[in-house]
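Hi R.,

As promised on Friday, here is the backbone we talked about, encoded as structure tokens. Could you run it through your design pipeline when you get a chance and send me back a sequence?
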């Protein structure tokens, strides 16, 4: 069975997404991989050194969030791995799915009212279609 990749950013919505991914891994016996994408573009920093420093800080935060996700999986007797990658969200997720030959991507739906959203609601549908076509990965959208 090909791995399950769960993208996560933290917060209540991400916990629901993580729980769905953990349940799928437990049900199928597939390897579970948590992915956090540190995308510094939201800050619109033009200086390369500051962008690199921001990416480093986001990566550290991402590792903390993923540590909690792995702990949730472990409590349900599901082994997992995690990785933080820095870059634009869409491209980085697609690259990682190809790299690990993922079978399923579990991703949370954009939350209304969130200040920082990597996807607008219409963008999510386009992203899901693109992932299915370019990576041969099934997508589970958690609302």
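Update: got your reply. Pasting your designed sequence below so it's all in one thread:
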């Amino acid at each position: 069975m090909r791995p399950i990749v769960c993208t996560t950013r933290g917060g209540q919505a991400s916990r629901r997404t993580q729980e769905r991914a953990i349940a799928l891994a437990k049900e199928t016996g597939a390897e579970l991989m948590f992915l956090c994408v540190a995308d510094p573009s939201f800050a619109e920093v033009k200086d390369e050194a500051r962008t690199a420093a921001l990416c480093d800080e986001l990566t550290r935060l991402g590792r903390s969030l993923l540590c909690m996700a792995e702990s949730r999986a472990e409590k349900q007797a599901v082994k997992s791995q995690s990785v933080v990658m820095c870059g634009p969200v869409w491209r980085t997720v697609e690259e990682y799915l190809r790299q690990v030959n993922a079978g399923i991507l579990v991703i949370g739906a954009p939350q209304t009212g969130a200040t920082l959203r990597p996807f607008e609601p219409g963008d999510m549908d386009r992203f899901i279609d693109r992932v299915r076509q370019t990576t041969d990965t099934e997508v589970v959208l958690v609302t």
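One thing I noticed while checking it: The domain at 4-142 is CATH 3.40.50.620 (Rossmann fold).

Thanks again,
M.
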